[in-house]
Specification:
alpha/beta; Rossmann fold; Dihydrodipicolinate Reductase, domain 2; 2 domains; 11 helices; 33% helix; 25% strand
Length: 326
């Protein structure tokens, strides 16, 4: 499909839309944020006022069926992604949905099926596929700077937040989030590795709860083999002490080693020939800017420009589900 201008509506204008995504829709050529939806009337009215959005509503269906809106961004918790995405696509609107794509892999398949049936594009907010630092890491891997790739290791560990300890955060409720914090944060890492190394072709993993703060997994260990034959080892825990806090992706090859943070956006560290080189990069004010820009350009030009689709994102849901649910 090809649109002259993309007029967006947001379903679920919560925290993620305040800075990470929401303002970007009005910063991109041929793109405008027209309406926002949230069930709480006072909060959605306040959001619209603060961000200069012309319309607001407490009804998702009203937003989806607004004739002025021709694309929908879904930023609710994952359990509602499939419902709203399917409704929007059946109404003839392209959809951009937050990550993880849905609470279950089966819901991802249903979303992709409707996308194919309706011809409506389906995009997912794995924006690291478009960020300069992560593209630079991919360039270093692809151009052979590290030599033959040997393995990749991932570690993401941090203490539990108070709302997680008290079991009041929706992100630790599998009925809403699909799993625990692993689904919320590790999904970014797993999707990026899919982008970097190709789809996962084999895996083994263990997920368990060691603290009892909530019902979801709090610690995960996994080994993955990707399409290019490179093995990945991963460790995730969201109940460690502050001393064990870590956020690192390390790529090791026969001629060098690259390490970087997934969430800290610190410089890449390239270790090669006995030296360490810091590679800095710019991070946009609105972290989803480049991905949203690619979506708008794809929708207005008809060219295939977006690297994060329902098809690629569903693979990440599948991998998480295989690790956590097995």
């Amino acid at each position: 499909m090809r649109l002259k201008k993309v007029n967006w509506g947001i379903i679920g204008c919560g925290n993620v839309t305040e800075l990470k995504s929401g303002p970007a829709f009005n910063k991109i050529e041929n793109s405008k944020l027209v309406s926002v939806m949230r069930r709480d009337a006072e909060k959605v009215k306040n959001y619209a006022f603060r961000h200069g959005v012309p319309k607001w509503t407490t009804s998702a269906s009203e937003l989806i069926n607004d004739p002025e809106i021709n694309a929908v961004y879904i930023a609710t918790p994952p359990s509602a992604h499939a419902k709203y995405a399917i409704e929007a696509m059946r109404a003839g609107k392209p959809v951009y949905v937050e990550k993880p794509m849905a609470a279950t892999y089966q819901e991802c398949l249903e979303m992709n099926k409707v996308s194919e049936e309706t011809g409506m594009p389906l995009y997912v907010a794995y924006y690291r596929r478009t960020l300069p630092g992560f593209l630079k890491a991919k360039e270093i891997v692809d151009n052979g700077t590290l030599g033959t790739l040997l393995f990749v290791s991932v570690r993401l560990t941090r203490p539990a937040n108070q709302d997680e300890k008290e079991n009041v955060a929706w992100r630790v409720n599998p009925e809403i989030a699909g799993g625990g914090i692993f689904y919320d944060l590790a999904s970014h890492q797993l999707d990026y590795l899919d982008f970097l190394l190709g789809p996962v072709t084999g895996l083994s993993g263990f997920a368990y709860n060691k603290t009892g703060y909530y019902n979801a997994e709090d610690t995960v260990v996994a080994s993955l083999i990707h399409k290019n034959g490179v093995a990945v080892s991963g460790e995730w825990s969201f109940v460690t002490s502050e001393d064990s806090k870590k956020d690192i992706i390390e790529i090791v090859g026969t001629e060098g080693r690259l390490e970087f943070s997934c969430f800290g956006h610190t410089p890449l560290l390239l270790h090669k020939d006995g030296d360490t080189k810091e590679i800095s990069y710019k991070v946009p004010e609105n972290i989803q800017f480049y991905l949203i820009k690619a979506i708008v350009e794809e929708l207005t030009t008809g060219e295939k420009l977006v690297p994060s689709t329902g098809v690629s994102a569903a693979r990440t849901n599948r991998i998480m589900e295989m690790i956590v649910k097995k």
